[in-house]
Amino acid sequence: MSIKSESMDPYQSGSNLKKWLQLTAQYLLSLPRHVKRAILLTADFLVAVICLFLALALRHGYIAHHISPVALCLYALIPIIALYVIGFYKGVARGFFDAEMGRVSLLFILLIVVYEIIISLSLSQNLPRSVPIIFLFFFFAWLWNSRLTIRELLTRWQGGRQPHRLEDNCDNVIIYGAGEAGRDLLEGLRHSNKYNVVAYIDDDRQLTGAYLLGRRIYAAHELEDIVERLKIAQVFLAIPSLSRTRRRQIIDKLSSISIKIQDLPSLQELADGKVTVSSMRKVDILDVLDRQTVEPDAYLLQKNITGKCVLVTGAGGSIGSELCRQVIKNEPKCLVLYELSEFALYSIHQELIALQAMHSSYQNIEIVAVIGNVTNEDNLVRIFEQYHIKTVYHAAAYKHVPLVEHNPFEGVINNTKGTYHCARAAIAAGVETFVLISTDKAVRPTNVMGATKRLAELVCQGLSKTSGSTRISMVRFGNVLGSSGSVVPVFTKQIEEGKPITVTHPDVTRYFMTIPEASNLVIQAGAMATGGEVFVLDMGEPVKIVDLARRMIHLSGHETKTADNPDGDIEIVFTGLRVGEKLYEELIIGEDNIEKTEHPLIMQAMEHSFPLDDIEDTLCELSHRAKKHDVIWLKERFKYFVAGYQESPNTETLESKTKLTEKIV
Predict the structure, then answer these.
(1) SS3 call for 23
(2) Rounded mean pLDDT of the chain?
(3) How far is Cα of residue 442 from the mean position of the Cα atoms in its chain?
(4) What are the Cα distances from residue 244, in Å, to 263, 519, 541?
(5) Is 441 a catalytic residue?
(6) Around Cβ 141, how many Cβ atoms within 10 Å?
(7) How confident is the model over 481-504, as pLDDT tens digits?
């Protein structure tokens, strides 16, 4: 047998050693916690004795017996006892962090003072003054490096890292932001099997070319080139204070590249419990819309809610449920949820009960769920009086344009007549504040839904003149992101399923706002009311739906499939305007009838109203006409009362005119 064949294979030897070390690590980890703590204590004590002996030898310049073994052990035991007292050995070795050693460094400074006092009192003749400093320096280095080594070895042996296969299994990512948040993010991703952080990007030019935790920091203008050169799959934004404008600039810079962009949660979100430290969220769609928010006025939020009994109609809907969440945050005395849908009412009621259990400040709030129809005035009066309601937010409405277009009488009975009965009940029960949630579709509507909401506004304007002590106002705003029927969740679902995104028309433009912000502003607007006002929320700049679709495709890490890019992932298909749908929505009827208020995002529209008697005559005849399904009469009434109302063309005519059945080119 040859010598080569008899010699041990180096690779096999290394593999056996690694296997043996892994088994040893597994055995040590399986030991009871008190045994592992005893092992660490013993090891640290032995090393402390060695460090003290070396410190003495270094101080005297030669190795000799300068102190008795008993005294040596006693002095070496002092830092061990001190570490045990501060809880150093209660921590987990594999969870070792720099902060823990910061506490140890402060402790050792205190111990140096203790040693020097012992020496000054001549309690130790054989311990020079410099020895404690040298000794604790050696011991501190041991503690730091030993814990780092334990953490690293445990991570490797437990399969937490496989460096030789990292590039094959992980996405290369860049962290945008070389500050504290970026450093913490890299620490969190260091042992990940999914992400491989290859570099940092930062706007601070003074950091360009430097290294942070072994990763180079590049300038912001190099971002696009770095993404292509290093084959980056994702960019993590780790600057919680980054403005929406700057976020949008970053997104625009990467618009030509198929790459995912994710945002590190802000400290406020972490404190509120909305996300966990380890979670990452996709870039907020508001970053794409470039919409800035304004801090709410606490006085306006609390004025009509805190310590009062509040009722929300349509409490299970998108706006109604968020209004309930905002109301309970401002600690009312009682919150009544009024809803026709049993399931929707059950869902929001259970959510609020769970929220109440989590916050001690909500414990005394009475939460009542009531099934009811807003057209039942007698029932509403009973509920208002029974619970001593002082504030009503009327959010109950049918709002889906095509559905109401095909069910016009159901829409006008619920939206207009329901508002009439609800407002009359509020006046009869002595409610202080009544706020109607309206829509931008009420302005020069081309659909039944918008006409019913404008007629509901006219009802409130008419009733406000005879309401006595009840302040009746209306708040009008556009689309809210995430509501039922909103394009954003529809587009998100289509992208996740790999289906084409359906857009009705390439020129369709809409205003957008988040549900929480809209609800927040509704409450503040209602608090400013004196009676009869039509408040209009500042929705920012309108956005083309097709541009929103393209940006959502890009943010999801896909490419838009077009004639110029046939290999793209998701295509956009135009389906034609729906019945009653407008290309552009408006928030005010006239350009010169808008006034500012004390809130920068809330305006007041000064609009024409009708005598209440005229509106009541129409509402009285409504039931009779509904039995005959006299849609012609209904739309004639709309044309009389609703400024700018135009009956929408039928579907066939609309599609033949627009010719929008072809796919995007």
Answers:
(1) helix
(2) 80
(3) 31
(4) 12, 21, 14
(5) yes
(6) 11
(7) 666 556 777 887 888 777 888 888
What lies within 8 Å, CB to CB, of 459 at 6+ separation is 416, 419, 420, 423, 612, 615, 619
Options 303, 399, 417, 441, the catalytic residue:
441
DSSP letter string, 68-128: -HHHHHHHHHHHHHHHHHTTGGGS-GGG--HHHHHHHHHHHHHHHHHHHHHHHTTS-SS--
Cα(first)–Cα(last) distance of the chain, in Å? Answer: 74
CA distance 375 to 526: 22
Q: Which amino acid is at 133?
A: I
Strand, helix or coil for residue 509:
strand
Whether 651 shows a pLDDT value over 50: the answer reads no
Show the tokens assigned to 101: 């050693």
Q: Which residues contact 585 (CB under 8 A, 6 or more apart)?
A: 440, 441, 443, 478, 479, 509, 510, 511, 542
- In degrees and rounded to multiples of 5, residue 89 shows phi and psi of -85, 0
The sign of the torsion formed by the CA atoms of 109, 113, 114, 118 equals positive
pLDDT at 495: 82
State the pLDDT confidence band at 379, using cuts at 50, 70 and 90: very high
Q: CB–CB of 373/418 below 8 Å?
A: yes
Give the full edge-to-edge strand order of the sheet including 570-574. Answer: 501-503, 570-574, 560-561
Query: At a CB cut-off of 8 Å and minimum separation 6, what does 202 contact?
Result: 176, 177, 178, 179, 182, 208, 217, 218, 219, 220
> CA-CA-CA-CA torsion for 531, 534, 537, 541, nearest 10 degrees?
-160
Tell me the pLDDT tens digit for each residue of 527-539: 999 888 899 887 7
Which residue blocks in 338-486 are alpha helix, DSSP H?
Answer: 342-358, 377-386, 401-406, 408-412, 418-428, 448-464
Is 229 within 8 Å of 193 (Cβ atoms)? no
Nearest to 338 by CA among 284, 271, 389: 389
- DSSP assignment string, 226-293: HHHHTT--EEEE--TT--HHHHHHHHHHTTTS--EEEEPPPHHHHHTTSS-TT--EEPPHHHHHT---
pTM value? 0.59
Q: Give the other-Cβ count within 10 Å of 348's Cβ.
A: 23
**Quick one: average pLDDT of 324-340?**
96
Q: Which residue has the tokens 């500042």?
A: 538
Least confident stretch, 6-15, 18-27, 150-159, 205-214: 6-15
CB atoms near residue 17 (< 10 Å):
10
Round to whole Å and give the CA distance between 474 and 459: 10
Q: Which two tokens stand for residue 259?
A: 């790459």
Beta-sheet pairing, 234-237 with 260-263: parallel
What is the three-class DSSP state of 374?
coil
Q: How far is CA 332 from the centre of its chain?
A: 25
**98: burial class by Cβ within 10 Å (0-12, 13-18, 19+)?**
exposed
